[in-house]
Design goal:
Order of helices and strands: HHHHEEHHHEEEEHHEHEEHEEHHHEE
Number of helices: 14
Largest sheet: 6 strands, antiparallel
CATH topology of the largest domain: Heat Shock Protein 90
Low-confidence stretches: 440-447
Structural class: alpha+beta
CATH class of the largest domain: Alpha Beta
Length: 447
């Protein structure tokens, strides 16, 4: 135990508290020498005894200090060993952007050794250096070629980054601030997860859906045309039973066509190939055309449609007219479909006062949406249990596609709903084209 204590003592000797302890010891020794040489005997021995007692009282403090130092060092080494051995890549750096830690997984992704980066200050100027380019772009995301799916929660931010040299790499990057108990910031921790293989699998899946959808499009279009011709009795008269059967076939064919188009659109969104054509469009005329289109369905459901125009005449808005029309069609169709008999659907356009945006709202008097389903409503393939009971058909892609279209336009879409009282869907569109994201970013945020 004594040997271990002195070994720990030597290792702790250079810490600031120990330096203070050595300094006090030096003063005590100097005082003892002074006492012995200059003071008379009685006083000399009294003061000498007091100095020795005082210094000895510091010994327990010394023992605790050495043990605490040793334990802290052990914990630090353990934490460092854990970080260095985790599967995900980890990079830690100070608020001055000096690298203090990098594990083996990060070395492999970056193509850099620990010796090359530990203690190195990473500045934006290093981005032109091929060796450090990826590391610089990870630390400074604004310099990266492609960034998507940014999510911020508290002091943690997540995003997806793509690199193409020497080969395509997809990384999920999480950034967390390193702070103490009082909130003082010391630096940042980056956790990198290689999603290259998952991205390749996603692309393969999307490619398959795209090819399959295109292959099915032509025969389905022919089938739909033939059934419509039969239903309209262009090939000859039908009796009531025959017409009823053909009508069911027509509805089934139309639903299949809509599902196919939804799958194709979702696949194109994920691949960044949805295709947008931005040009000035009249928002009021767009709403009117959608309401005219859905008037027959509203009459069948016995639902009244209302359009509340803005107080002043709107200037044309830069948008992809067909895509925004698809969003409105989805919202109005759902508002009618899930409404009650003799219910109402209200469409409203208003000019936002604090930001250069228009706000569109579509409200209904239907059964509303469960609170637990609201956060999943705009995700791909989500359909609530209540909806599946009322409407067995559908893939749950309409709101997912709508959300991506609005995001691609630089807007936001949201829903507020109360069970038994209806729902209100709102989305915004910028009136200033400067707020529309760059053309190389698709609606999902994938570059």
């Amino acid at each position: 135990m004594i040997l271990k204590f002195f070994k720990n003592l030597l290792r702790a000797a250079s810490t600031i508290p120990m330096l203070i302890f050595w300094f006090l010891g030096f003063l005590v020794v100097a005082q003892i020498v002074f006492n012995v040489l200059w003071l008379p005997s009685p006083l000399k021995w009294i003061l000498l005894s007091l100095w020795i007692v005082l210094y000895l009282t510091l010994v327990p403090f010394l023992v605790k200090l050495v043990n605490d130092f040793f334990q802290a060092e052990v914990k630090t080494r353990q934490a460092s060993a854990i970080v260095l051995s985790v599967a995900d890549a980890v990079i830690a750096y100070t608020k001055d952007f000096e690298i203090v830690l990098i594990n083996a997984a990060a070395e492999k992704i970056l193509g850099l050794s620990r010796q090359e980066v530990i203690g190195k200050v990473i500045s934006p100027e290093l981005s032109s250096d091929p060796k450090f380019g990826m590391l610089v772009q990870i630390i400074y995301p604004s310099l990266a070629p492609f960034v998507s799916n940014r999510q911020t929660e508290g002091h943690t931010q997540k995003m997806e980054m793509k690199f193409f040299k020497p080969e395509e790499i997809i990384l999920e990057v999480g950034t967390t601030q390193i702070t103490d108990d009082e909130g003082k910031q010391y630096g940042f921790l980056k956790i990198l997860r290689d999603r290259t293989r998952e991205g390749a699998l996603d692309r393969t899946k999307s490619d398959f859906i795209t090819v399959a959808a295109h292959q099915m499009r032509t025969p389905l279009a022919g089938l739909l045309w033939a059934v419509e011709m039969l239903y309209k009795e262009e090939a000859g008269p039908l009796n009531e039973d025959q017409k009823g059967i053909v009508k069911q076939a027509l509805l089934a064919s139309q639903e299949m066509s809509q599902s196919l188009e939804g799958l194709l659109s979702a696949s194109q969104i994920e691949q960044g190939k949805f295709g947008y054509k931005f040009e000035p469009a009249d928002a009021e005329q767009l709403v009117e055309s959608v309401l005219t289109e859905f008037q027959p369905a509203a009459e069948v459901k016995k639902v009244k449609l209302y359009f509340y125009r803005p107080e002043t005449k709107l200037q044309p808005v830069i948008m992809d007219r067909n895509k925004i029309k698809l969003v409105l069609e989805t919202l109005v169709d759902n508002a009618i479909k899930y409404n009650v008999a003799n219910g109402e659907v209200k469409i409203n356009i208003s000019v936002m006062t604090d930001v250069p945006y228009l706000k569109f709202s579509v409200s209904d008097t239907g059964g509303g949406i469960r609170h637990g389903d609201l956060e999943k409503l705009f995700t791909k393939f989500f359909r609530s249990e209540k909806v599946m009971k009322e409407q067995t058909s559908g893939l749950g892609l309409g709101l997912y596609i709508a959300r991506n279209i609005i995001k691609r336009h630089g807007g936001e879409i949201s829903v507020d709903s109360t069970e038994g009282r209806g729902s209100v869907f709102e989305f915004t569109l910028p009136t200033d084209s400067a707020y529309i994201p760059p053309a190389d970013i698709n609606s999902e945020g994938i570059l």
